Amino acid sequence: MFGPDFFAAAGSAGDWDRWDAIKDIRIPTLVIGGGFDQASTEDFQKMGRLIPKSRAVICEKGSHWAMYDDQETYFRELIRFIRDVEADRFK
């Protein structure tokens, strides 16, 4: 679907674009990624702006596996998000 790899998408999914659809996500959403992730920090932040009940977090020291290489930020923000959902802070 992607072609030789995710960075050179040339297959049938190469032109797939869902940016317009993410505004329809209606549940609280945590968009979390690493500063050294394969996706750009700008894309994570854009998702956080477009999804109505969302929060975007960048684990500055993290990669695609930020839960391992930036555990402090990752779990602090995950716990904060869960507490905010439980307290119904995403209206």
Distance linking N and C termini: 37 Å
Strand order of the largest sheet: 1-2
- The helix tally amounts to 3
Largest β-sheet summary: 2 strands, parallel
Number of strands: 2
Radius of gyration from the CA trace? 15 Å
Uncertain stretches: none
Helix content: 25-40%
How would you classify the helix and strand content by structural class? Answer: alpha+beta
Shape: flat
**SSE order, as H and E?**
EHEHH
The average pLDDT is 90
In what range is the share of β-strand residues? 5-15%
What does this protein structure show overall?
This protein has 91 residues and is α+β, with helices and mostly antiparallel strands. The chain has a domain at 29-91. The protein has three helices and two strands, in the order E-H-E-H-H. A two-stranded parallel ribbon has the order 1-2. Strand 1 (29-34), helix 1 (41-50) and strand 2 form a beta-alpha-beta unit. The relative contact order is 0.16. The model has no long low-confidence stretch (mean pLDDT 90).
Task: Give the tags.
2 strands; 13% strand; alpha+beta; 91 residues; two-stranded parallel ribbon
What is this entry, summarized?
The protein has 91 residues and is α+β, with helices and mostly antiparallel strands. Helix content is 33%, strand content 13%.
Helix-strand blueprint:
Layout: E1 29-34, H1 41-50, E2 54-59, H2 66-69, H3 71-86
Parallel strand pairs: 1-2
